[in-house]
UniProtKB/TrEMBL annotation:
It is found in: Cell membrane. This is Uracil-xanthine permease. GO terms for cellular component: plasma membrane. The chain crosses the membrane at residues 34-52, 58-75, 112-131, 138-162, 174-191, 198-218, 238-261, 325-344, 350-371, 383-402, 408-434. It holds the Pfam family Xan_ur_permease. It comes from the Bacteria. GO terms for molecular function: xanthine transmembrane transporter activity. It comes from Amycolatopsis decaplanina DSM 44594. The keyword rRNA-binding does not apply.
């Protein structure tokens, strides 16, 4: 095939089809791998830790996630008929399902997790043709809430890691463990401040390396078992046993599938805009099918739910390298790394306090991304505030009180024991109730949440600068087009009693 230059690719309307050559493609591909490496190894470390498997088995999980992430990335970026957006999108183990999978693994072990992922991903594959019609039910008020809860739900994991992870160990929660986590956290923050973009973007990964070196110097890192096992091997299919299928676990994971499909849709649209190429429904459908197909195949090779990595979308924007073949090269690199179980054992030997210090920032970044999404939501004259409040509140219940659902039927606990599932169900239900069902008739008593979001300063009132079309005065008071009262506050934000034509009285 003739190599397409940048000008030819741009002229064709598909700048992502530019070919940079073998050397440049793999060089930039390594940069993509380094950008997402910390994110792709974290889920198997979390889930393996909760499952209580050995260091060698955690190494297998890490290698498997790298392997299937490589396959998924190649499928998404290079593509085959009906599968793959053919855009520079890097795939990897989704953070969205971590909290749910840890809840499932606590009850049914890893086979139950693999079974739930396979079944829910196949269901997701079936609904991809109609998912574009469902996207309207997952607006920013829903996705932002869910992403925020994902990050917050993982904070106890970071704290557990910082303390040493093993509650039975004599040094669990010791000053030395927490001190090592604090040093790692400090390194993350310092490297993030470095003016060199390549260093600041890799601050999480570099902090783990430096923290591990410090731990080794302090005698808190054990790499003696790294060479116990093969150096090169393809992940063994069903290495943890045949998958088991539990209905409640599948329902719980299907909620994660809906969130994953929404996130991947957003990433496809975002990278299409960054690259400057046309993205239609068919391309989105192909991308979502690649997402779900790779997720359904992942458990066969001991992997988990797959999704597009948003940080790599940002890397495309930062570097300006729009070729999808660069990302395909990155997928090949991930595939090779996944066939090096010795590398997985090295990662599994990293001291948990080091991971805990880095995890505080890594998981906090997820929560911050959700908060950023929520900042774009319109809260004026609607019930979006109560949607966020109730959903986040319900999502935090299993985090604050893990035994909250212990007296309920097992299926209830499986679904709601995960903060992400609880928050997602509540957010979707309330969004349907408040934003899609027919609103109450004008003149009915407004909710305190709706009225509390609209306030006018008294100084602005005199200039009429914040009045809206339909606002009017009734009995000396301002009401909106539906007859709902509009609050008035003074310059210091204090509510005032007023009648038009008289001076306000402060409360």
């Amino acid at each position: 095939m003739v190599k397409r230059t940048q000008a030819e690719a741009a002229a064709s309307g598909r700048p992502e089809d530019e070919r940079l050559g073998f050397g440049k493609s793999f060089t930039y591909g390594i940069q993509h791998v380094l950008t997402m490496y910390g994110g792709i190894i974290a889920p198997p470390l979390i889930i393996g830790g909760v499952a209580g498997v050995s260091t060698a088995e955690i190494g297998l999980l890490v290698a498997s996630c790298l392997f299937i992430g490589g396959l998924a990335t190649i499928l998404q970026s290079f593509g085959v008929p009906f599968f793959g957006s053919r855009l520079p999108l890097v795939q990897g183990t989704s953070f969205a399902g971590v909290a749910t999978m840890t809840a499932i693994v606590a009850d049914g072990g890893l086979p139950a997790v693999f079974g739930a992922v396979i079944a829910s991903a196949l269901l997701g594959l079936l609904i991809t043709p109609v998912f574009s019609r469902l996207v309207k039910y997952f607006p920013p008020v829903v996705t932002g809430t869910v992403i925020t809860v994902i990050g917050l739900s993982l904070m106890p994991v970071a704290a557990q890691w910082a303390m040493g992870n093993n509650t039975k160990a004599p040094e669990f929660g010791s000053v030395s463990n927490i001190g090592l986590a604090a040093m790692t956290l400090a390194i993350v923050l310092l490297l993030s401040k470095v003016a060199v973009p390549a260093i600041s973007r890799l601050s999480i990964l570099l902090s783990i390396v430096v923290g591990t070196v410090l731990a080794a110097a302090l005698g808190k890192a054990d790499f003696t078992h790294v060479w116990d096992g093969p150096i090169f091997a393809v992940p063994t299919p069903f290495g943890f046993g045949a998958p088991t299928f539990d209905v409640a676990a599948i329902v719980s994971m299907f909620i994660v599938v809906l969130v994953t499909l929404t996130e991947t849709t957003a990433d496809i649209l975002a990278v299409g805009e960054i690259v400057g190429t046309r993205v239609g429904k068919r391309r989105i459908g192909d991308g979502l099918r690649a997402d779900m197909a790779s997720s359904a195949i992942a458990p066969i090779f001991n992997g988990f739910m797959q999704s597009a990595f948003a940080q790599n979308v940002g890397l495309v924007a930062i570097t300006g390298i729009r070729s999808r073949f660069v990302v395909t090269a990155g997928g090949v690199i991930l595939l090779v790394l996944g066939m090096l179980p010795v590398l997985g054992r090295v990662v599994a030997a990293i001291p948990y306090p080091v991971l805990g210090g880095a995890g505080l920032v890594l998981f906090g970044t997820v929560a911050a991304s959700g908060i950023k999404t929520l900042s774009k939501v319109d809260y004026n004259g609607n019930m979006n505030l109560v949607i966020v409040a109730a959903s986040v509140g319900l999502g935090m219940v299993p985090i604050a009180a893990p035994e909250f659902y212990h007296h309920f039927p097992a299926w209830v606990g499986t679904i709601f024991h995960s903060g992400i599932s609880s928050a997602a169900l509540m957010a979707v239900a309330l969004n349907l109730l408040f934003n899609h069902l027919k609103p109450a008739k004008a003149g009915s008593d407004p909710s305190v949440f709706a009225t509390a979001t609209r306030v006018i300063d008294y100084s602005d009132l005199k200039a009429f600068s914040r009045l809206k079309n339909g606002d009017r005065i009734v009995d000396g008071k301002i009401v909106d087009a539906e007859g709902k009262p509009v609050q008035v506050r003074d310059e210091d934000g204090r509510p005032v009693s007023y009648r038009i034509g008289s001076e306000p009285e402060e409360h």
